[in-house]
Write a structure and sequence with these properties.
about 400 residues; alpha/beta; Rossmann fold; Immunoglobulin-like; eight-stranded mixed β-sheet; 12 helices; about 35% helix; flat
Length: about 400
């Protein structure tokens, strides 16, 4: 299944574009599922049919459903109480009833990631269209699986699980309690689930579609969102410009906004594949209005590109000469960061990791094995790429004979 993630600044028409894109794909014969993530049923309002946690047919070939974090949180906590029932009874704890449970911060994000994983693994559909939250929150959400996996690996390294059978003996010898098997089993289960979400995001057929109004504020939001996507290794396949005013308006007060959007669209077309969606003069409601918007469908999946070495997805490692040696070899790691500004960038080498900060976004990346034996020799931002130079460390690279 192909996954198409829709996001953009708040109020830009993301839900309308997600619904219209899914409808266009379904009308082209693609079995499509559109997944809403708002707490209120904004997706159902656009499609003209109520959308809840249970799948509903919104049009021929188009199924819609909405993530409901409340129900997922209640089910998870109830199941946890059932599994820990003996311990709770021993402690004399009073169990919580499902009706009195209110989702905690973070429950909505975890429910969305789970829904994304389950929907992407389904064999009932050919295309999954996800109406993500506004861009800033969406980018934090998409970074969550990798960050959580990194925390788990640091707190409970997988290699330490090899000594699980010796923990009772080691505990007696050391005189301190060691982590129980259940802790490692839980960490392994979480890691597996998070890895499944990461696999969906890293799949070469998964792309992001940006949505924004063509205005100075929209241009700033698109640049920031594109930078965050590039840092996460995600690809934007196209940009949908919404609520585009007609060029031939006679009202004098609209001349300024029309000129403004014309300038923004011209700038966007230099970088993106842009689809301009005309303003209907009203909020779209129902499949007839969505069809009138003439939104593009999913289109073909992007061609796969093989990189020799990957650290960040879609980054590449190049050698400045032949096989690098401790004497004269220099390796350059090219990380695409379109829209980045030199004053917004920061780079730190910490052990076998590189910490890259670009604007409001930050990512910690494990270095490829070849670069772990090198020292950082410098970095530069050129042509939308962060180029990090590495020089082999003589103490770690084989010496020429």
């Amino acid at each position: 299944m192909r996954t198409l993630l829709i996001t953009g600044p708040g109020g830009s028409g993301r839900t309308t574009v997600a619904a219209g894109t899914a409808l266009a794909a379904a009308r082209a014969g693609t079995r499509t599922l559109v997944l809403g993530t708002d707490r209120t049923d904004t997706l159902g309002a656009v499609l003209g049919v109520p959308v809840g946690a249970a799948p509903v047919e919104a049009a021929p070939g188009l199924t819609a459903r909405r993530v409901e974090a409340d129900a997922d949180f209640r089910a998870d906590l109830t199941a946890l109480q059932d599994r820990a029932g003996a311990a709770l009874d021993l402690l004399g704890a009073s169990r919580l009833e499902p009706d009195e449970l209110t989702p905690l911060p973070g429950a909505e994000e975890l429910a969305l990631l789970r829904a994304l994983r389950d929907a992407a693994l389904s064999e009932e559909y050919d295309l999954l269209v996800v109406d993500l939250p506004p861009a800033e929150r969406a980018l934090a959400l998409l970074a969550l699986p990798g960050e959580l996996r990194r925390y788990l690996r640091r707190l409970l390294p997988p290699e330490r699980q090899a000594a699980r059978a010796l923990r009772p003996v080691l505990g007696r010898l050391a005189g301190v309690p060691l982590p129980a098997d259940r802790l490692y089993e839980t960490a392994a289960r979480w890691d597996l689930q998070l890895a499944a979400v990461e696999a969906v995001l890293a799949d070469r057929s998964t792309t992001v579609r940006l949505v924004a109004e063509p205005s100075p504020a929209g241009a700033d939001a698109v640049r920031t969102a594109a930078l965050g996507l590039a840092l996460r290794g995600l690809r934007a396949d196209r940009l949908v410009a919404t609520r585009v005013l007609p060029e031939d308006v006679e009202d004098s007060w609209l001349a300024g906004p029309v000129a403004q959007q014309r300038k923004t669209l011209a700038e966007w077309r230099e970088t993106y594949t842009v689809d301009a969606v005309a303003h209907l003069g009203r909020d779209p409601r129902g499949t007839d209005d969505l069809g009138a918007l003439a939104l593009p469908g999913a289109g073909p999946a992007p061609a796969a590109v093989d990189w020799p070495v990957t650290g960040l997805p879609h980054s590449r490692l190049r050698s400045s000469g032949a096989t690098p040696t401790a004497a004269d070899g220099v390796l350059v790691w090219h990380i695409p960061l379109p829209g980045a500004r030199r004053e917004e960038l920061d780079l730190i080498r910490r052990g076998d990791e590189i910490v890259v900060t670009a604007g409001p976004f930050r990512r910690i990346v494990a270095l490829p094995s070849a670069l772990r034996r090198c020292t950082v020799d410098g970095a530069a931002l050129r042509e939308g790429e962060l180029r990090i130079r590495f020089r082999p460390d003589p103490a770690l690279w084989p010496q020429d004979r």
